[in-house]
Design brief:
The chain is an alpha+beta fold and about 525 residues long. The chain has helices at about 160-165, 210-220, 220-230, 265-280, 330-335, 345-355, 395-410, 460-470; strands at about 5, 40-45, 50-55, 70-80, 85-95, 100-105, 115-120, 125, 130, 145-150, 170-175, 230-235, 300, 305-310, 330, 360-365, 385-390, 415-420, 425-430, 440-445, 475, 480-490, 490-500, 510-520, 525. The strands form 4 sheets. The protein has a 10-stranded mixed beta sheet. A 7-stranded mixed beta sheet has the order 13-14-16-18-20-19-21, covered by helices on one side.
Length: about 525
């Protein structure tokens, strides 16, 4: 990263030797009001640091086009919202090759405390964001609060859940995928139609400009911008950031004609998708522009309270077994998928090594699709047992290895987080779901979607199948959009299932539908 400090430390250690200040403001041709219209964000908090993000854009209201050259961007971080106590400041170059995005890895901060930050391009100031560093390693942490979110289809409705998250005063937002959707413009809301891609009709994004425009559209939403500005985020992707239900370098099953791509062609599309993701997320990762590879799995510790393992189950997974349309097929295909993996051998080892080494009270695995077994019959009680083979049900030997490791490492209070399925769940976890008499080893929380639609036939169908085939399901609700709010203390994990009254209005109220609690040392969640 290019950092030019202005009267401050370089952010690598310690504090500034004098009061940090920005260099004098100088107008930059082509940089005008609206250049920060995608907002600001922070993420990947450490005890001594955090990533600060923004991206300069041409104002959507028109005016001067942003110059196609590198632009210096100043930044400040302070202990107060009015910036009377500035602790670090500097300048970073926003390069045109990365769409004028900025990732500042600020270090030398104090652990477990809030900070405020902002950017400046020329004479234009950005909105102010708030973030928080993680508690010191092994420090006795009193608590952690975060929102679990996923699946925000811009075209399907508005995002009142993000307004609620912005007002929640949380330490963190954990996003487990489907930040954008790749589909062509089609919405019942005139102001929510997707950007038009270079090749309409494929229902896919393909070019780098396609993906950049879609991210810019999503980030222009005021509710999402407010949620980013209110808290640090930890993010990972699922499929729609690239293409629905892709696996590694294999595109969506059932694609034919111009929609189907062989692995070399799909690698080019994935490179465009991954670059745009990097350009728009507050993540501490290394990325080479134009590469189809980006290591996104990483780990965060919050004092002695909680370890958060963030996984990537798209980039390294093998194709779904059977390659059946819509990935709904016989559950036996997943049972016999002995060579399948969702994470790849290297990431599996990384996860298990981390579980073995953890000494925190709560141990969290954030990944994309439901971990628990979810079986169904087209007519409940009759016919073959089916499963969504894009979920962990398509990779049962892999899931058994992972849950066996959770059990065998003896890691304390394991919790798995997921999204993807557009409805909320609380599930008991067992190594073998077909043996309900065996011990519960942990709990899974699956958040409902921010706005993406429910697609599992209907709620009664799901509830009846759960009664007959899925006794480990403790809670299910599919008719409402929202998020899961979690407050963790040394003694308990408390999860509120938050639901929006409707996504037809930006200002719809958000309430708590149910609260589930896990007590320290007692596997399994109980309704409060």
């Amino acid at each position: 990263m290019l950092l030019a400090a202005a009267g401050c430390s370089d952010g690598s250690s310690g504090g500034p030797t004098q009061r940090p200040s920005l260099r004098p403001a100088t107008p930059i041709p082509g940089v005008s009001d609206g250049v920060f219209s995608l907002g600001v964000a922070s993420g990947d908090p450490l005890p001594d640091g955090v990533i600060l993000w923004t991206r300069l854009v041409t104002p959507s209201s028109g005016g001067t086009t942003l110059p196609d050259r590198d632009i210096p961007v100043d930044w400040q971080i302070a202990t107060d919202e009015r910036f009377t106590d500035i602790v670090q400041a500097g300048t970073q170059t926003a390069t045109s090759v990365l769409a004028h995005s900025v990732h500042v890895d600020v270090r030398g901060l104090k652990p477990g405390r809030p900070y405020f930050y902002r950017f400046r391009a020329g004479t234009v100031l950005s909105p102010v964001g708030r973030t928080r560093t993680a508690p010191a390693t092994s420090a006795a942490a009193a608590g952690l609060s975060f929102a679990l979110v996923s699946c925000q289809d811009f075209q399907n409705g508005y995002w009142p859940a993000y307004n609620a998250i912005a007002a929640d005063d949380l330490d963190l937002v954990v996003h487990v995928g489907d930040y954008i959707y790749e589909y062509d413009p089609k919405s019942r809301f005139p102001d929510r139609r997707h950007t038009t891609p270079a090749t309409p009709g494929l229902d896919q994004l393909q070019t780098l400009d396609d993906y950049r425009a879609r991210y810019a559209q999503y980030k222009s939403d005021p509710a999402l911008a407010a949620a980013h500005a209110a808290s640090a985020w930890v993010v990972t992707w699922d499929d729609h950031e690239t293409e629905n239900n892709y696996a590694g370098l294999t595109d969506e099953s059932g694609d034919t004609g111009d929609k189907h791509q062989d692995p070399p062609a799909f690698a080019r599309q994935r490179a465009n998708a991954y670059q745009a993701y990097y350009e728009h997320m507050p993540i501490r990762v290394s990325y080479t522009p134009g590469s189809p590879d980006l290591r996104l799995y990483r780990r965060f510790a919050f004092g002695d309270l909680l370890t958060l393992n963030v996984m990537d189950t798209r980039q390294y997974r093998t194709p779904q077994p059977g390659r059946v349309p819509q990935d709904i097929g016989p559950a036996s295909l997943g049972d016999s998928n002995t060579t399948g993996t969702m994470a790849g051998s290297e990431q599996e080892k990384w996860l298990i090594d981390g579980l073995n080494a953890s000494r925190t009270r709560w141990n969290v695995i954030a990944q994309q699709t439901m971990m628990a077994q979810l079986h169904a019959q087209a007519v409940p009680g009759r016919g073959p047992v089916l499963a969504n083979l894009d979920q962990n049900d398509g990779y049962v030997p892999y899931r058994t290895r992972l849950l066996s490791a959770v059990r065998d490492t003896g890691v304390r209070n394991p919790v798995i987080l997921a999204g993807d399925i557009h409805c909320a769940w609380v599930n008991d976890l067992r190594v073998d779901f077909n043996r309900p008499e065996t011990p519960v080893i942990g709990t899974e929380f699956v958040c409902t979607s921010i706005s993406s639609g429910f697609f599992l036939v209907n709620e009664d169908f799901v509830r009846e199948n759960n009664r007959l085939l899925n006794p480990h399901v403790r809670y299910f609700r599919g008719d409402k959009r929202g998020y899961t709010r979690v407050r963790v203390s040394p003694g308990e994990w408390r999860a509120d299932q938050r639901i929006a009254e409707t996504i037809d209005r930006r200002d719809a109220p958000v309430t708590t539908d149910a609260t589930w609690v896990i007590e320290d040392g007692r596997p399994g969640a109980q309704q409060a």
